[in-house]
Amino acid sequence: MAPNTVEKAPVTLLGLGAMGTALARTWLAAGHPLTVWNRTSARATALAAEGARVADTAADAVAANTLTVVCLLDDTSLEQVLAGTDLAGRDLVNLTTGTPAQARARAEWARERGARYLDGGIMAVPPMVGVPEAGGYVFYSGSRELFEAHRETLATPAGTTYVGEDAGHAALHDVALLSAMYGMFAGAAHAFALIRKEDIDPASLAPLLA
């Protein structure tokens, strides 16, 4: 290793859907040693060619590194994938979409198994990951110590916004902002509906709405 080379922290990633794959590629591009696992193993083939280590089981993947990031379908999937896995001494970051209640329960579940826990709400779509100018970021809540320990690594794919020790607050911020967004979309659609039968060019209304 060259004297001025900074060794990047290793990461384990469980889940290689569209978002998980985007996260994986960003960490790999930044030089982080990455261990991945996916229920459908074929999804890991391309990442292996890009330098990722592919674990045979989720338990093997978790054992490989201190930091494990989970990006699965839902909370039930997380429960199934990590059943029986030794989490003692591990740092678990859950980027799986869920409710505040699920996040709080999962934080207690992790604590009982000797792990630190951080819940996340991703405010981005996969093409925004790894593109700082796109403005994507992730809400994090739960263990502040975990967040501070891995802040730089977590900030590699997207910006980070820590919203408190209550593990449910990331999911709560996520759904609150999504609710506001859907309301704005509905309001814009309603505004255009109001002028549809009138002699008003929608293009003239659009800048006012913007």
Structure characterization notes:
With 210 residues, the chain is of the alpha/beta class. It has one domain (11-175): NAD(P)-binding Rossmann-like Domain (Rossmann fold, 3-Layer(aba) Sandwich), CATH 3.40.50. Helices cover 43% and strands 17% of the residues. The chain contains 8 helices and 8 strands. It has an 8-stranded mixed β-sheet with strand order 3-2-1-4-5-6-7-8, sandwiched between helices. Helix 4 links the parallel strand 4 and strand 5 (91-94). It is globular, with a radius of gyration of 20 Å.
Keywords:
8 helices, Rossmann fold, single chain, 210 residues, 8-stranded mixed sheet, alpha/beta
| Main sheet overview | 8 strands, mixed
- Quick one: how many beta strands? 8
Report helical residue fraction: 40-55%
Shape, please?
Answer: globular
Name the strands of the widest sheet in spatial order: 3-2-1-4-5-6-7-8
Question: Which CATH-level-2 architecture?
Answer: 3-Layer(aba) Sandwich
CATH topology heading: Rossmann fold
Q: Kindly, what is the distance between the CA atoms of the first and last residues, rounded to a whole number of angstroms?
A: 51 Å
Number of individual domains: 1
Strand content: 15-25%
Q: What is the helix tally?
A: 8
Provide the residue-averaged pLDDT: 96
Uncertain spans: none
Q: Topology as H/E string?
A: EHEHEHEHEHEEHEHH
